What does this fold into?
Amino acid sequence: MTIADPFREAGARGWKVVDAATLTADRDIECDVVVIGSGAGGGVTAEILAQAGLKVAIVEEGPLAVSGEFKMREREAYPRLYQESAGRQTLDKEITILQGRCVGGGTTVNWTSSFRTPGRVLAHWSQAYGLAGMTEKDLAPWFARIEERLSISAWNVPPNENNDVLRRGCMKLGLSHGAIRRNVKGCANLGYCGMGCPLNAKQSMLVTTIPAALEHGATLVHRARVQRLVTDGDRLVACEAHGVERNGAPATGRRVRLRARHFVLSAGAIGSPGLILASNLPDPHGTTGKRTFLHPTVVSGAVFEHKIEGYNGAPQTIYSDHFQDAVALDGPIGFKLEAPPIHPILGGITLPGFGADHTRWMTRFPHLQVLIALLRDGFHADSPGGQVVLRSDWPVLDYPIGDYVWEGARRAYLAMAEIQFAAGAQSVMPLHEGAQPATSWREARAAVEGLPMKSLHARVVSAHVMGGCAMGRDPRTSVVDESGRHHHLANLSVHDASVFPTSLGANPQLTIYALCARLATGLAATLKA
Amino acid sequence: MPTRRQFIQVGLAGAALLATARLIDRSEAAPAPNHRFLDATGIVTIAALVPVVLDGALPEEPEARARAIREVVEAFDRAVSGLSAGVQREVDQLFSVLRIAPMRIPLTGLWAPLEESTPEEIAAFLRRWRTSRFEIQRAGYQALSQLTQAAWYGNSDSWTAIGYPGPPRLS
It folds into this structure.
């Protein structure tokens, strides 16, 4: 079977692709716009700017890895395609963050879940942060444009058993639920999206916008970590990058210096505020890196008599918003329920305990069913999120979990266990160091009510980093304005999830795409004028 | 329950010990041959930890078992070498705690180095850290157990026993 790989003909098509880790001499690049990061925000931005006739350079910290290298093996994929080998953690190690680091960023390794921004989140952004032009109606054409571009549509294939448990449990309990739309074309329902799609069926930035930008003359510099943005007065004039190895260490000591009229930060909600802080850019109100959100996620494992085989079939095709739609945005924290892929490394490290107890769960691996609850942070005064701080010039997220979030995590354990038992689970265990498997909903409820909800007892993970360069009208509480421009540096924009004023309560890729398409279109018009 | 004052004292003692760890132990630290992070003592430390963390999961046959342990140690080493410099420094400090008696004895309860301790003693240490009231010990437990578990379950030799067929073949 031949897989269409747009990069196979990169040489023949004259695409400008530079691997900074193998440079033998320093390199200088001049262009109109430097886009730092090639994920959801950077990819969409680069395509729109390049198509508008601007000379674009994309700088990506991770490697250019293409479909022929995606072998569906965790031990190869995680070190190559993820930040910190998929083991990035918050400052106190409480939360493990799955974040892409490769050309295409998170879009190369995400699980394809595509949701438009919930309407009441947009309404909240308008009311609480004064953002204009961000209603559901305003954004509808941008969503439609991206859905068309990235083939986002209903997935009309029966859910895998891991997801069907969520569907059946919700049906039984009368909880609202639905099917998740996906950005795929020719998907073979393999279930290995998180290790890079070997078929290029996932319509990530790697196979859509980045090739399109290159076709329009953009330059892609990969394995290049931008260390510093260089200012001259109130303008940015350059950014400096050096080639990096997979652990972020300098590769050759060679640097790339990029000069441009305008700079777009799309380095994600840890990288973008981190680079602003590391470059000592103006931050008179100390807003940079504040209010960074994660959708802190807790996990419930169940064992079924029949095989679940959570490693087979598209991950995350069913969701339930029952527990976030049922509560006010600023009430007790709401959560979204989904069913993730289950593979040996992620399963092995997420199941609590060690030794014989842990091994007993692993030997039931094909029978293991897993639900996750993504907690909607940032909407309540007691949910301020975390803060990006620098440790030896390296951005780290400090995100202590407070009682407000813990209370929701306990409710989420209860909700997931009840659904799993309703769907026929033999036993259920919250993934928490203090938990034991329960064999009935009654037993599980009593056990969960007694669990200590504390850091590094409950397993908490996240695959969504948002905020830290909040968009807003008031420079005292935000970092960029409604056009994505930095409040204090006219030729710096931020186009990624870091501009969100709160989390979303939904997987963020489609929100990032649509918002950045709007921001990039505005930026292109300004720069061409 | 410890009083807050006791907590701070123990915390300060722990911090002082960690600060000491930073000053010593790194003089002769060079990775062992075929390793990027672990030195010779690091290798024997993890090799002693592996059969405890993976109790019941490793092959029984002595030769296969020895090879599995060796491969888990190598994969552990590769995983740490892929972490950022800051996190590698923290793992380094964790090794100092496990190696240097004046820190190991009070902080882990292990009188002897791991390679001279029994599996029961190592399991007791892991249980103690797992639910310790000190966040840093819980984090240390999670780092050691998760790096070991990831190193084994990423190895295709572990898959038959758990019934995982491996990724599909693309025809």
